[in-house]
Design a protein that fits this description.
This protein starts with a helix and ends in an 8-residue tail after the last helix. Strands 1, 4, 5, 6, 7 and 16 form a 6-stranded mixed beta sheet that branches. Strands 18-19-24-23-21 form a 5-stranded mixed beta sheet, with no helix packed on it. Strands 26-27-31-30-29 form a 5-stranded mixed beta sheet, with no helix packed on it. With about 750 residues, it is α+β, with helices and mostly antiparallel strands.
């Protein structure tokens, strides 16, 4: 029999439902119209998958934990980032979101949801097989699929361009390891802070500032180095591709007419003359001005700059287009003092390529360039006239780089070929993004001269061994002050004793607690107050040894994990008591050309449950299920699990609710994350109440739109839509005449 209290409770519930029914009646006409108009809000997305890229304008694309703008912001992807779309979902407003996978840095794979409006599939622009001959050519060149997709787009835009695969005899991880060493690559301070390295030697931790490794430059981070080193990021458009242009001399392709078009409107479009002793072995005799020969053998030579550049191209085996563009970039439209031979104190000496022109020994750059031109020595020096300076400078470029297997702007920056001088050390520029910047200048020169679609350009595109399936994404840079600081300054565990002293560069700890401890409270302090912490708060100890991961998300969204092994007294730790120290957050690849593969890799973790359904979401959870019961209904092989709240804090007690996140770990790495959905529990408190009915009403009236697992929890009758019928299902549950089915 019902007690008086239960009768009063049921009476109150009937009164509340009656009031709600009256309130709802006023909205019925509008809701009926809404249902006819929308026929429910579909929970099924468009189903598109495949290789794609981000197409935003000025800001990075938000990557979220699930479909919906109210879910946790995980990252921001800049324009042109290459992604793999693996699934899709629809939010409460009917907008389609794509589930994506992408690469950041060396081997950090990330997943999340992005709004579909900002994603473009390569296949929608240039479908596979649209040009069978080009498809066959790509196969012959052995380009990986992640190269083929953007190359199809470029070929469709510029069908005369030639793309060649340059097979690099280096493992990708080895090349990235070497190029990421502190001091090898630089970045100017006006770029985002997320581009700067915070490793030892690049960042002064004691004083909290970056170290100037070169004049006005900081060390480049491993993540931005990976972005610029990855050749696929140079295939995003018809500008960046020019960092791969073959800069060798191709007599059948290069012409004086096109060279003139490059320099048109500059001083290089004109002529020059000089006097010297006649030398038919060096100077073409057709350049002698008629009647200029004197008794001592001195003659006057007159040449056009274009003719001299063509002579230099043949002499040095370097593209005349590259020479013309390089001189134009170095000397400007009107020519500097080094192009005119008028630098004070060094009159009569020329240096068209600014070779040796960098500030040192207390002298400005141009003075040092003039000193180099005056010196006796190689490359036809001293450069006492424009002809010798242009031929000699071209010879310097050719013999120092082009003829040493560094025949592209990319290879002049990233010395990953052995042209007889080793690897990594013979790099023309220190700025990590120099190839992209110079490619832009080169493309502009070609565009201004009208050569882009009238000439045949050949591009040699590096392909490394064992490359990841996607291009490395650029770091988030919307907030230029957001750093990569994802270290902790302290960790505490209530009632626990750490076996080793805390250090920000030590990422695993064993913590001992009393044998009867049921739960602990974990707290941590980030080095950067702008960092986000995941995994702090109360944690239930469900076994004698509990593995727990704290994730630190830097202001730039770069993650780092710290792992705790919490051991009840008297038990044997499941991990060695002496935690390992890891010098960097990223696994360090073996710096050898052919790293030894692991003979027996650790198996991936397997999550199973005989009670719940594990899919996109974890379902089948009854309302008011406590955390311990919930976790006890899973079996895990080769890994561990941890329950988090929707805000990212560890959840060790209380009721499991919609929006809670179950994470599956392999060691310190999150292998998979599953949101919990309890049908009818729309507000995520773990129970079903009138509040949940109101939230469905507000959804239908478009007053408050919910998305992701909360939106799915509204579908109480499992008909793949959100409608009045779902409110009725909850009403019947509350009246005790029905239940909200969880399967």
């Amino acid at each position: 029999m019902d007690t008086r209290r239960n009768k009063r409770k049921k009476h109150k519930l009937h009164k509340d439902l009656k009031r709600f029914s009256v309130l709802l009646a006023g909205f019925v006409p509008f809701i009926c119209y809404l249902i006819v108009l929308m026929q429910g809000i579909s929970l099924i997305a468009d189903g598109k998958t495949g290789l794609a890229f981000v197409n935003t304008e000025s800001t990075g694309l938000a990557v979220r934990a699930y479909a919906g703008t109210d879910s946790m912001l995980l990252d921001r992807l800049p324009k042109d980032s290459q992604i793999l779309v693996t699934g899709s979902a629809v939010d409460g407003s009917g907008a389609v979101w794509y589930e994506i996978k992408y690469l950041r840095g060396a081997d950090t794979w990330r997943t999340g949801y992005v709004h579909s409006s900002y994603i473009v599939f390569y296949n929608d622009i240039a479908p596979v097989g649209e040009d069978p001959d080009f498809e066959k050519y790509l196969e012959e060149q052995n380009f990986p699929e992640s190269y083929k997709a953007p190359l199809r787009v470029l070929h469709k835009e510029h069908p005369t361009w030639v793309f060649k695969a340059q097979m690099i005899d280096l493992d990708w991880s080895t090349a990235l390891y070497e190029e990421s060493k502190v001091g090898v690559n630089m970045i100017h301070p006006y770029y985002a802070a997320s581009w700067r390295s915070m490793e030892e030697g690049a960042y002064d931790w004691e004083n909290g500032r970056w170290i100037e490794l070169d004049t006005g430059c900081y060390g480049a981070s491993a993540t931005i180095t990976a972005y610029f080193l990855d050749p696929r990021n140079g295939l995003c458009d018809d500008t960046r591709i020019f960092q791969f242009e073959d800069l060798s001399y191709l007599p059948d392709s290069h012409s004086a007419e096109n060279t003139y078009n490059i320099v048109k409107g500059t001083f290089l479009a004109g002529e020059y003359e000089f006097q010297t002793v006649r030398d038919d072995g060096l100077y073409p005799s057709y350049g002698i001005v008629e009647g200029s020969q004197q008794e001592d053998g001195t003659v006057t030579y007159r040449f056009s700059y274009v003719d001299t550049i063509m002579q230099a191209a043949e002499y040095a085996k370097v593209s005349p287009y590259h020479l013309a563009s390089r001189i134009r970039q170095e000397m400007g439209v009107n020519g500097s003092e080094l192009a005119k031979g008028t630098y004070p104190g060094y009159e009569g000496y020329f240096n068209f390529f600014n070779i040796g022109a960098y500030a040192h020994s207390g002298r400005p750059a141009r003075e040092n360039g003039a000193i180099y031109a005056k010196q006796e020595g190689s490359y036809l020096r001293p450069w006492t006239n424009p002809y010798k300076a242009i031929l000699g400078g071209a010879d310097f470029v050719g013999s120092s780089y082009i003829q040493r297997e560094q025949n592209t702007l990319y290879l002049q920056k990233f010395d990953v070929t052995d042209g007889g001088n080793g690897r990594y050390s013979h790099q023309y520029m220190s700025n990590v993004n120099a190839p992209k910047d110079e490619a832009s200048s080169l493309k502009k020169a070609y565009t201004d001269s009208g050569l882009i679609d009238t000439s045949v350009f050949t591009f040699e595109i590096p392909v490394y061994q064992n490359m990841p399936e996607l291009a490395a994404a650029q770091p988030a840079s919307d907030d230029t002050n957001a750093t990569n600081n994802n270290w902790l300054s302290s960790i505490t565990v209530s009632g626990g004793t750490f076996e080793s002293q805390f250090s920000r560069t030590q990422y695993e700890y064993t913590v001992n607690v009393p044998a009867d401890t049921a739960s602990v409270t974990i707290a941590a302090t980030p080095c950067d107050s702008g960092a986000t912490l995941l995994g702090t708060g109360e944690l239930s100890l469900t076994s004698d040894t509990t593995q727990h991961v704290i994730t630190v998300l830097a202001p730039s969204f770069e993650p780092r994990t710290y792992t705790l092994y919490i051991v009840r007294s008297g038990s044997i730790p499941s991990t060695p008591s002496a935690p390992s120290e890891t010098p960097t957050p990223t696994p360090t690849p073996t710096p050898t050309p052919t790293p030894t593969p692991t003979p027996t890799p650790d198996p991936d973790p397997v999550l199973q449950s005989g009670v719940y359904e594990i899919g996109t979401y974890i379902t089948g959870v009854e309302p008011n299920t406590d955390v311990a019961t919930f976790l006890g209904n899973f079996s895990v092989q080769n890994g561990t699990i941890q329950l988090m709240t929707s805000s990212g804090a560890a959840k060790g007690s209380g009721a499991v609710g919609t929006g809670d996140l179950l994470q599956l770990y392999k060691g310190n790495e999150v292998m998979q994350s599953y949101f919990v959905v309890i049908y009818g529990d729309v507000n995520g408190d773990g129970s079903i109440s009138l509040t949940d009915m109101v939230m469905i009403q507000r959804q239908l009236l478009q007053i408050k739109i919910l998305e992701g697992p909360y939106f799915t929890a509204m579908d109480t009758n499992h008909d793949q839509s959100c409608s009045l019928a779902d409110m009725v299902t909850i009403q019947r549950d509350l009246l005790g005449i029905g239940t909200v089915p969880q399967r």
